[in-house]
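Quick log. Single chain, no ligands specified.
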Amino acid sequence: MHIAYLADEDDFDGWRDAARRFALADTSPADIVWQVGDIPGDLFAADADAPMDATEGAFSVSRDFVTLAKSAICHSDPERFALLYTLLLQLRARPGSMGDRADPLLRRIEDMAKAVRRDIHKMRAFVRFREIAASADAEPRFVAWFEPDHHIVRTNAGFFVRRFASMHWSILTPELSIHWDGERLTEGPGATQADAPQGDPLEEMWRTYYASIFNPARVKIGAMTKEMPRKYWKNMPETALIPALIAGAQAREVKMVEASRSRPGGNSGVALEKLRDEAAHCTRCPLHKCATQTVFGEGPVDAALMLVGEQPGDQEDLAGRPFVGPAGQKLDEALTAAGVDRSSLYLSNAVKHFKFEPRGKRRIHSKPDAGEIEACRWWIDQERLLVRPQVTLALGATAARSLFGKAVTIKATRGRAHELADGSEAWVTIHPSYLLRLPDAVQADEEYHRFVEEIGMAAKRVAVD
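-> predicted structure:
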């Protein structure tokens, strides 16, 4: 019998090194005990029970296995180490078996990895920071309590560092705690819920926001509790509102249904909501890994004019709505000047997740590449299919590429109508963020007036039709 000592429950590197050594010695899974923590001080004594003659040599496994193992190792099942080692031996004997989806062992480990990914997503969605009291000259500090189902805290730490880089925060969990001081991430022992603060003044604002966006037509109790299990409710300020909101949902829904019967587009509205729900879990490109959330389009389902931008910015990523940051404010100004009501438009973006580069405590916009634009074209195509705008106005080259399916230049395409594959009309103009980057005031003023003119031209095409 051999003992493999691992430093932590999520010690993938330790498991990999031990598994490689055991596999090279053809050690049976039944002959290995995987032990977490309490590593003997004498490391040579710890290794004495392992096959030391197998330290030489190497072998490789597929990248898919490594990716799968890194996720599954974070599962709470105590058998995960042995199961992964058994799969490793199986892959050495039959390298192509990673493609055998009927293999019970592979399916069980994939289910583990899926559960871990789901837990990671829930932590990102349901962590709620509360500000703790500090002296007048001290940096504000925020603390959150979370109870994960699996060993995901270290794996998830990088997301919170990137997302809340400028804050000083702690996330407390029963297993361990992580702390960020703006420059360095540290770990500490597990905590209890009593160690976390119970509320702060921001929570009333958060509850008001949640109540304002609550949509009775989308209330499905079973689906809601599946996506947001009740175990998380006690840590989230907005969940105290749920019973009252649900109680009034049925009456509100009846009114919405009656209103939809008096005009066309009711089915499209439901389909658009379903599409928005699906997009919230989009993983079609890697951008979802660092962004806070999917920023989907918004506006009337029967909008005659649709505006498509490049991607959400920093403020849009936080708010979950398109065009609410500085570029959105410039767009609002131009829409008013052109005599166009924003509430009549459907606003969206070619790319649904914020792409950025961290620079110190800031997140700097980074232009989406061709692969990311293409991955997101499916969402834009579906939005246009449901909204069926008479005219679509592309704001910038990225939006134009998404609409036309190829790279185009603003100079060559702006200021005139183009026919899209579905027979509708498209126009191209600059993105409002371009106006914010122009250093020359005279040029900026000229470009702004041309931008207003081109918005007006597209809007008049709708009026003519």
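Residues 42-55 have pLDDT under 50 and may be disordered.
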